[in-house]
From TrEMBL:
Its EC number is 4.1.1.33. Residues 8-167 form the Diphosphomevalonate decarboxylase-like N-terminal domain. Keywords: ATP-binding, Lipid biosynthesis, Lipid metabolism, Lyase, Nucleotide-binding. It comes from Uabimicrobium amorphum. This is diphosphomevalonate decarboxylase.
Length: 337
């Protein structure tokens, strides 16, 4: 039996990936930037290979999932790793997300990153961060960034074989210890339009999409500089505008994609009002492919943001994340406790 267990955390992008130039290899149109979160947005995955298993199985959050052979799926990196290790045994994957799956909390990022790290360890492969990132990319684009902790950039690359499209750490998890991500949960149901399907229709139909790509070219260096300098006001403003740009291109998609809900909009107004009231930018919202708000702020303003969120009826729950360290190997028993 080959076995290993890993945890990995979701990452919340501040320059987001929304569109593939190559669907097969998962190559994006733009570089993206994110912070990997701590264990409040965590997946724990055990991967086992054994001749005793009759077929491949994936158990996600206690339910057996359908693994259609040959279908492009989030678990494709397991096949790639099995070939690399030259071990042709059936696999059993047991995974749980400690937060809602498919609801805009980037479960595909933490899920696939944990899967790649556990599989490579179980198969006794010693791979570099770059190799792990490229493998995770092929399961879910955003997962390429979750193989690292801290502040991470996924390079889009220029080559058509994908060998120059991988993520790298720009700053470690303790670079900006005061940074917080306050999550306002407004909906935990699985989204109707998956990220994979949604971004495909945006690239095919949105006229705004090309403008967004031009806009991002200018944003990326400014965002990196703001994070490295810990210039919160610039960072937060760029973050909000980038999220709005992505959601504008989603609305401009045909048929339109609307991930934001009334609850999301109330959070946007709350952040706008708070920043205006204090006369400085102390909070910046961003939304992934879902209605739940991620408010970047600093430790100092965490409690005032929580107080304001508690007054919004649509907000069902509030979680606070710090920047996390990235994937960790843990004991196999931990999965089953
Ligand atoms: P999210 O916003 O949660 O990332 P996506 O639409 O991108 O939503 O992806 C959700 C899909 O990711 C799930 O339907 C499942 O196929 C895959 N996924 C989520 N969690 C895991 C996991 N722990 N292990 C393997 N695959 C996962
Ligand atoms: C809005 O990585 O989930 O969260 O590559 O098809 O699996 P696939 O999509 P996915 O898309 C993430 C979209 C996003 C932005 C981001 O995380 O950069
Ligand atoms: Co996802």
């Amino acid at each position: 039996m080959y076995i290993a267990t890993y945890t990995a955390s979701a990452n919340i992008a501040v320059v987001k990936y929304w569109g593939k130039r190559n669907e097969e290899l998962i190559l994006p149109y733009n570089n993206s930037l994110s912070f990997t979160m701590d264990d409040n947005l965590q997946t724990i995955t055990t991967v086992m290979f054994s001749e005793k298993f009759s077929q491949d199985e994936l158990w996600l959050n206690g339910k057996k999932m359908d693994l259609q052979k040959g279908k492009k799926s989030h678990v494709l990196p397991v096949d790639l790793l099995r070939k690399k290790a030259d071990i042709d045994l059936p696999v059993r994957i047991v995974s749980k997300n400690c937060f809602p799956t498919g609801a805009g909390f980037a479960s595909s990022a933490s899920g696939v990153a944990a899967l790649v790290c556990a599989t490579s360890k179980a198969l006794n492969l010693t791979l570099s961060g770059k190799e792990l990132s490229m493998l995770a990319r092929q399961g879910s684009g955003s997962a390429s960034r979750s193989v690292y902790g801290g502040f991470v950039e996924w390079l889009k690359g220029d080559l058509e074989d994908g060998t120059d499209s991988f993520a790298q750490q720009i700053a470690p998890h303790d670079h900006w210890p005061e940074l917080r991500n306050v999550i306002a949960v407004v909906e935990t149901e699985e989204k109707k339009v998956s990220s994979r399907h949604g971004m495909k229709t945006t690239t095919l139909t949105s006229a705004l999409y090309e403008k967004r790509l031009q806009y991002l070219e200018g944003v990326i260096p400014k965002m990196k500089e703001a994070v490295l300098q810990k210039d919160f006001a610039t960072f937060a403003e760029l973050t909000m505008r980038e999220s709005n740009s992505m959601h504008a291109s989603m609305l401009d998609t045909w048929p339109p994609i609307m991930y934001l809900s009334d609850g999301s909009r109330e959070v946007i107004y709350m952040v706008e009002d708070l920043n205006a009231e204090l006369g400085k930018t102390v909070a910046g919202y961003t939304f992934d492919a879902g209605p739940n708000a991620h408010i970047y702020t600093t430790e100092e303003y965490e409690s005032v943001i929580k107080e304001r969120l508690e007054k919004i009826a649509h907000v069902k729950n509030i979680e606070v994340c710090k920047v996390g360290q990235g994937p960790q190997q843990i004991s196999d028993e931990a999965q089953f406790l």
